[in-house]
Write a structure and sequence with these properties.
Strand order of the largest sheet: 3-2-1-4-5-6
CATH class: Alpha Beta
Largest sheet: 6 strands, parallel
Number of helices: 11
CATH superfamily: NAD(P)-binding Rossmann-like Domain
Order of helices and strands: EHEHEHEHEHHEHEHEHHH
Distance between the termini: 38 Å
Radius of gyration: 17 Å
C-alpha cells in the first residue's frame, strides 16, 4: 500500500518504521521540510517529502500532528485528494498543551472536530497507545497477550484499511464504532493507553463515561507532571488504568 504520513514525532516516526518494515511504500512529511527527515528516511527506507507531496498518489494518509496544526497547516491540503483515499487521525486534544479550541470543550469528539477542520471524514486510530507501547510492544498476529487498539470511523472500507494497518504495526484492531463514538477512546477513558487485550478493550470502551473523561484527563495530567522524572512506562500504564477505572 502507498501511505503518506504527516508528522514525525514519537507516534508518527514509529508508524513510518513499522509500516515500511511491513512492506508498505511510505512517504513522510513534517512542518520543517524533508531535509529534517533524512535520518528517519535513511533508517526506515521511507521517502522524505514536503507535506503537499505526502498526500499525492497514495492509498492512505496518516495525520500525526498537534491539534493546533490542523486549522493552520492542513485546511487546504486535501482539496485535490481523491475521496477514496483513507485518512487516519492519531491525535489527541490536551488543553494544557493545545489551548482551549472552539468546539472541543462542548463534547464534540476530537476526530469529528478534525474532520471539520480538513473538510473530509477521518478514521481515528493509534491515538490510544503510548509511543513506547507502539514502538516496543507489538506482537505477531495470534500471539498470546497481544495488545488491542480501537479504530473508529463511519466508512466501512476506510475503517477496514485502518484496521489492517493497525494489525501490520503489531496490534489487534477492534472496531470501536462510529466517529461520533470515538470519544470512548479519548484521553481520560478506560481504553486510552492502558494496554488491553481485545476482550478487555471491548469492555473498556463500553465502560467509558463521557462526562468523567475530561475530568480524568486533567487529573491524570496533574499526577503525571508531578512525578514525570520518576515514572516508568509501566507506572504510566497503571496510573491510566487506576485513574479511569
Amino acid at each position: 500500500m502507498k501511505i503518506g504520513i504527516i508528522g514525525a514525532g514519537n507516534i508518527g516516526a514509529s508508524l513510518v518504521g513499522k509500516l515500511a518494515a511491513a512492506g508498505h511504500q511510505v512517504k513522510v512529511a513534517n512542518s520543517k521540510g524533508p531535509e529534517t527527515l533524512r535520518e528517519l528516511a535513511d533508517a526506515t527506507g521511507a521517502q522524505a517529502v514536503h507535506k503537499q507531496d505526502a498526500v499525492k498518489d497514495v492509498d492512505a494518509i496518516i495525520l500525526s500532528i498537534p491539534f493546533l496544526s490542523y486549522a493552520d497547516h492542513l485546511a487546504s491540503l486535501f482539496a485535490d485528494v481523491p475521496a477514496d483515499v483513507t485518512v487516519i487521525d492519531t491525535s489527541n486534544y490536551y488543553p494544557f498543551r493545545d489551548g482551549t479550541l472552539d468546539g472541543l470543550d462542548n463534547g464534540t469528539p476530537e476526530s469529528v472536530w478534525v474532520s471539520q477542520q480538513i473538510g473530509r471524514p477521518v478514521i481515528k486510530a493509534w491515538n490510544a497507545v503510548l509511543a513506547a507501547t507502539l514502538a516496543e510492544r507489538g506482537k505477531p498476529a495470534g500471539a498470546a497477550g497481544r495488545i488491542a487498539l480501537p479504530v473508529a470511523g463511519d466508512d466501512a472500507k476506510a475503517k477496514a484499511v485502518a484496521m489492517q494497518l493497525v494489525d501490520d504495526t503489531g496490534f489487534d484492531a477492534l472496531d470501536a464504532g462510529s466517529l461520533a463514538d470515538s470519544w470512548r477512546q479519548q484521553p481520560g477513558t478506560p481504553a486510552y493507553c492502558t494496554e488491553l487485550t481485545l476482550d478487555e478493550l471491548n469492555s473498556a470502551l463500553a465502560a467509558a463515561d463521557k462526562k468523567r473523561a475530561p475530568e480524568n484527563r486533567e487529573a491524570l495530567i496533574t499526577q503525571f507532571m508531578a512525578r514525570y522524572d520518576e515514572l516508568t512506562h509501566d507506572d504510566t500504564i497503571e496510573m491510566n488504568r487506576a485513574g479511569t477505572a
